[in-house]
Amino acid sequence: SSGINAEYGGCPTFERITLQPDGDPGWGFSFRETSSGIYIIKRILPNTPADKSGRIKSGDEVIEVNGQNIVGWKIKNVVELIRTHPIGLVMVVRHYPDTSPPPSSDIPPSSARAIMSLICTLKLYTILRD
User: Fold this and answer.
1) Residues near 77 by beta carbon (within 8 Å), at least 6 away in sequence
2) Is residue 8 within 8 Å of 101, Cβ to Cβ?
3) Could you list the pLDDT tens digit for every one of the 130 residues in the chain?
């Protein structure tokens, strides 16, 4: 598994990120909601708290905002939660590694993601079993 793990970026990781306001309104990121109620970072604006943190990337999933699990929330409630904490924002995000196959690979991207998903599940099982 080390070969494909190295080629396809590894398993998702979770990170708690704290953003501090910089005097301008907003935190500097936009997100979209998936049909399953997951919020995905769409864009990071330059020279904003999100950009300056260097830790939030397009494609990250936002799992928690200021201690609240937001998966499945209505988007207006998520926006309200973010806006009602002007002195700081703490988010838990899930970073997904790049699972695009190398240019020379004959493996389609969807297969690469499926393979990595299986590897990550097996790693988690091994950790939980021990």
Assistant:
1) 70
2) yes
3) 444 444 445 678 889 999 998 888 889 999 999 888 999 999 999 999 999 999 999 999 999 999 999 999 999 999 999 988 768 899 999 887 765 545 555 666 667 667 777 777 777 667 666 6
Q: How many CA atoms lie within 13 A of 47 on its CB side?
A: 2
Q: What is the value of pTM for the model shown?
A: 0.69
Beta-carbon count within 10 A of 82 CB: 20
